[in-house]
Amino acid sequence: MEAPAAPHSPADLELTVTSPDQMRELGRRLAKLLRAGDLVMLSGELGAGKTTLTRGLGEGLGVRGAVTSPTFVIARVHPSLGGGPPLVHVDAYRLGGGLDEMEDLDLDVSLPESVIVVEWGEGKVEELTDERLQVRIHRAVGDTTDEVRHVTVTGLGERWGTVDLSVLSA
Fold first, then answer.
1. Burial grade of 146 (CB within 10 A; 0-12, 13-18, 19 or more)
2. pTM, two decimal places
3. What is the pLDDT of residues 55-77, one digit of tens each?
């Protein structure tokens, strides 16, 4: 994974990921920065690697259960195996409305003690907290076998203003 010499701000980082294994490793590294109460929003095209990144997060957080796409169940909770926060993995792809539909999931109740990762959450979960990590994954679209992904990690709010995201590119 490569990072540019000068990220946009202390809370922005751009990376190039060239394989699913690297995407998983990025998730494991990211897990080291996360704590209970953190919201991570993942965006990117279908097949960009959102669930692969979340799988690495689950490994890094040491949670129980295989992390798979929760598309049809909307949300899965993965309890910690070692006293850390549980991982709540949400796929908001099929949810049309904003926070109204999300309220049924009680994410606001889970947030203080969990790490919540929401795929396809833009325009749906921002009202949960002003402090969140946004991860945008860009890939070539169309008929391609290109594994290259461009990942932009943006920390929003006071919580992320002092976090050194450059450790993700190590």
1. exposed
2. 0.84
3. 999 999 999 988 887 766 678 88
Query: Six-digit token pair at 92?
Result: 């908001």
What does the alpha-carbon distance between residue 112 and residue 115 come to, in Å, rounded to a whole number?
8
| Residue in the block written with tokens 């169940």 | 73
Rounded to an integer, the average pLDDT of 14-23 is 95
Residue 144 DSSP one-character state: -
Q: Angle, to 10 degrees, between the axis of helix 50-61 and the axis of helix 20-31?
A: 40
3-state secondary structure 51-110: HHHHHHHHHHHCECCCCCCCCCCCEEEECECCCCCCEEEEECCCCCCCHHHHHCCCHHHH
Q: Which residue has the higher pLDDT, 82 or 97?
A: 82
Give the pLDDT band (50/70/90) at residue 127: confident
C-alpha of 71 from chain center: 15
Residue 70 is encoded by which pair of tokens? 């929760």
Place of tokens 């080291």: 32
Q: DSSP letters of 130-142?
A: S-EEEEEEEE--S
What is the distance between the alpha carbons of residues 43 and 149, in angstroms, rounded to a whole number? 12
Residues facing residue 109 across a β-bridge: none
CA distance 8 to 15: 12
Residue with tokens 């049924």: 104
